[in-house]
Amino acid sequence: MSEASSTGAALEEPRPHRRVDADLAPPTARSGLLGVFQNRYLLRLLVRREISARYSGSFLGLLWSYINPLSQFLIYYFILGKLLDRGTENFAVHVFSALIVVHFFIETFNAGTRSIVRNKSLVRKMALPREMFPVASMLVSLYHVAPQVVILFVVCLFYGWVPDPMVPVALALALGIIMLLATALALLFSVANVYFRDFASVVSILTNFVRFGVPMIYPYAVVEERFGSFAQYYMLNPLAEAVLLVQRAFWVGTTQDPSATAATELPDHLFTRGLAMVGVSLVVLVIAQLVFTRLENKIPERLN
Amino acid sequence: MSYPADTSIVVDQATKSFTLRYHRTFKQVTVAMLKGHQVSDTFQAVDDVSFTVEQGESVGLMGLNGSGKSTLLKMINGVMKPDSGRVLTRGRIAGLIATGAGFHPQLTGRENVYLNAAVLGMTERETARKFDDIVEFADIGRHLDSPVGNYSSGQFARLGFAVAVHVDSDIFLADEVLAVGDKPFKKKCLERMQEIRDSGRTLLYVSHAASSVRKMCDRVIVLESGKVGYDGEVGPGIKYLKYDAGTDEEEQDEELGADI
Ligand SMILES: Nc1ncnc2c1ncn2[C@@H]1O[C@H](COP(=O)(O)OP(=O)(O)O)[C@@H](O)[C@H]1O
Ligand SMILES: [Mg+2]
User: Fold this and answer.
1) Where are the alpha helices (DSSP H) in chain A?
2) A139, A140, A293, B173: which has the highest count of C-beta atoms within 10 A?
């Protein structure tokens, strides 16, 4: 009750004049990704509540985000490394590095695609930039990347890995590519999903293929060996680039002779390509935003 | 075209049409098309509506169900854009549309208060400062920490209204908010809306209750199938609607339990 409560029954008195400084403007003015970052407090609320919802009612809580990836790593270690003895050195680390990227991408893509429909009760009645929801999905997935990187870091130390200055660069490039690209796809498919809920199912199927389009369960060297010069088309996939960057950051350093591994197992100009892929992903994001803006007008009326 | 400095809301030839889809699935659509039936149809829910509201004016928006009142409010609060024409507003907008707030059913009342307040432009500190007031006003007791999906429609409306009135807005929208509240709460809300009005904020009030519109508003706009049927003084506006045909209107409101 912050206003003066003395005005209660002042029916016949002239009302106080309220001067409003704002301009006369369309009520929908701030939107788009820029609008999202202008309202960081709201974004933070959405992200925080998604994160806490995930472990609400659980005793170990956030610890699960460490236990999960660790158990996955151990499975790979025993099944792939010990049982099926694949040719690649430290194959479990190879797979796990790739998995971090793949998971981040898939989670963002899937959750982002459903995000607007899932928040329809807000979208139908409140004026807020609707890009907020796919972006929040991406940030929630990003939040869960951190414990996985920590696990990978510790595991690699056990393997006698010594971090070099390019590790953070490679990691940042890889995460940057996925953040931009997955947000772009989440934007496109979240609005498509409002029109036809079939898109969420399409996305689940699409993401099944992602695991096989990147050098995760097979080494990149195999691609070069089998496809020869076609390997350059393989490398047009930004996800493959991101996976190789993370493998460069972690897995390569755990092998006996890192420089030899890098020479045979990684494509040339890895970092330059990485930078180029960040640029490509940025372009895709801009296009996605333009499409989103065209389609979003009908979102509130199509949600029911 | 320019408007005077005390213009609060401009609705300028705004039109919003909706598509009615008679069939949803692929199978239904194909069957209907093969039989030569119509698959969809568009209609104007808001049809070439124009009016301006001055800062501090209190306008009652009336009309039968489906006449386009909620759609018009959605364009004013920025959820929807008009297909043609334009809508301009000045300052912060708060309020409730179509009886409820934009609450997330899986979140608790507490979380929703923060979320809703953030959407309405309140900062974390501002919300924290007003939180106790909001909760006191809503008066939903122990249910504050259970998901709002479990709330009764009255509790839902209480909490939504409580947040909305605590936003320091320049324009307040109230769309049949009081239809689901109980009597003491209706009374409290009406008093609160009078305070809002008397503090010089613009009020747009949708109600079917002639008596409360008479009490609250100094102008009435009547929508008829999306068009403005009447715009002017309150008394003739209510007459225009023929709500008070026959019995005395106060008595009728009382009978219907709709003194809102
Ligand atoms: N999303 C939508 N899709 C199709 N028709 C809609 C949609 N929303 C509202 N309508 C229709 O538009 C008309 C006006 O609705 P509304 O503005 O809610 O009316 P009121 O609030 O005056 O009762 C109604 O006929 C309603 O069925
Ligand atoms: Mg309505």
Assistant:
1) 32-38, 40-54, 64-76, 91-118, 120-123, 132-158, 166-195, 198-210, 220-227, 231-234, 238-246, 252-254, 258-265, 270-295, 299-302
2) B173
Is pLDDT of A188 > 60? Answer: yes
Sheet holding B7-21, edge to edge: A24-25, B84-90, B7-21, B40-54
Q: Which amino acid is at B40?
A: S
* The pairing of beta strand B219-224 with beta strand B227-232: antiparallel
Q: Quick one: which ligand is closest to B175's CA? A: 2
Ligand 2 mean position, distance from CA B80 (Å): 14
Q: Chain B within 8 Å of A300 (Cβ-Cβ)?
A: yes
Which regions of chain B does DSSP assign to beta strands (E)? Answer: 7-21, 40-54, 58-62, 84-90, 93-96, 171-175, 202-206, 219-224, 227-232
DSSP secondary structure code for residue A16 in this structure? P
- Inter-chain CB proximity A127 and B79 less than 8 Å: yes
Cβ proximity of B41 and B22 under 8 Å: yes
Write the DSSP symbol of residue A119. T
Give the closest ligand to the alpha carbon of residue B74: 1
Given a cut of 90, is residue A291 above it in pLDDT?
yes
CA distances (Å), origin A82, targets A71, A90, A222: 16, 10, 21
H-run or E-run covering B189: helix B183-198
Q: How far apart are CA A142 and CA A147, in angstroms?
A: 10
The pLDDT tens digits of the residues spanning B141-159 come to: 889 999 888 988 888 888 9
- B71-111: per-residue pLDDT in tens? 999 999 899 999 999 999 999 999 888 766 778 888 889 99
User: Tens of pLDDT along A134-147?
Assistant: 999 999 999 999 98
Specify the length of chain B in residues: 260
Q: Which alpha helices (DSSP H) does B48-170 contain, by range?
A: 69-76, 109-119, 124-138, 153-166
Q: Do residues B57 and B218 touch, judged by C-beta distance below 8 A? A: yes
Provide the ipTM: 0.86
Asked if residues B62 and B208 have their Cβ atoms less than 8 Å apart, the reply is yes
B116/B113 Cα distance (integer angstroms): 5
Chain A residues with CB inside 8 Å of B104's CB?
119, 121-122
Q: Specify burial of residue A36 (Cβ count, 10 A radius: 0-12, 13-18, 19+).
A: buried
Single pTM value for the model: 0.89
* Residues A168, A75 contacting (CB under 8 angstroms): no
Look at the alpha carbons of B222, B215, B5, B116 in this order and tell me if their dihedral is positive or negative: negative
Supply φ then ψ for residue A93, to 5 degrees: -65, -40
Lowest mean pLDDT among A171-175, B13-17, B116-120: B116-120
Q: In the predicted model, what is the mean pLDDT of residues A278-291?
A: 97
